Amino acid sequence: MTDNNFFKDKKVLVTGAGKGIGRATVRRLCQLGAHVVAVSRTQSDLDSLRDEFSGSVTSVCVDLADWTATRERLSEAAKGVHCLVNNAGVALLEPFMDVTEEHFDRSFGVNVKSVLNVSQIVAADMIARKEGGSIVNISSQASQRALAEHATYCSTKGALDMLSKVMALELGKHKIRVNCVNPTVVMTAMGRLGWSDPDKAGPMLSRIPIGRFAEEQDVVEAILFLLSDSAAMVHACILPVDGGFLAT
């Protein structure tokens, strides 16, 4: 059971905070008394977050694919962070034979390289403070199953899973836990738009024993559990939130 009291007065950095899972995570953390550093490349999303959670959110607007700009913008904001949620990601879906260099580089730049970059920034401060911390990376069931027209996306998420394991191996001695959450299709606003067609959703749903896609809160609760001391001995975990998809 997640210790919701754990988050009171904690500082948590969330990337991809403007929409979907990231925004839902920010909302729940603020409700639990955390101060959130919300990172997004869309200023209007950050403005609405600040309006919704006045006093509980510090916003940072940056394109995480830009390594140098990310370091510049987060150098101060990341200080004193207790927990990190690497949620930002892109899904540029296309048949294997149509994958372009531009889309390949953009996908790896956001889905993998930015996780390395942001985690280095945050972990360096955690190590200097000698207080430990927790990092949760948002991966996907696509890291472990081949999906048509997902060549680049599946590749980035497979890389993210392995990056997370190496992070766990090297950061564990500093009392920094690192885990992954690997959802199935999630019914964010974008998810509902993309998966409302029964002809498209049917084949995927038929592979999910529980018979539905994930809701945002299903993923948020898994994130909070792994961040909190309730998961104090959970480290280097790849946690599916997939209704059993990976069992089929």
Automatic annotation (TrEMBL):
Name of a matching Pfam family:
adh_short_C2
Q: What keywords are assigned to this protein?
A: NADP, Oxidoreductase
Tell me the InterPro entries matching this sequence: KR_dom, L-xylulose/Carbonyl_redctase, NAD(P)-bd_dom_sf, Sc_DH/Rdtase_CS, SDR_fam
Please list the residue ranges annotated as the Ketoreductase domain. 10-198
* Record GO biological process: glucose metabolic process; lipid metabolic process; xylulose metabolic process
Does the record's keyword annotation contain Oxidoreductase? yes
Q: Does the keyword Transferase apply?
A: no
Q: Transmembrane region positions?
A: none
Q: Name one GO molecular function term.
A: carbonyl reductase (NADPH) activity
Family per UniProt?
Belongs to the short-chain dehydrogenases/reductases (SDR) family.
| Subunit note | Homotetramer.
The protein here is known as Ketoreductase domain-containing protein
Q: Which organism is it from?
A: Cloeon dipterum
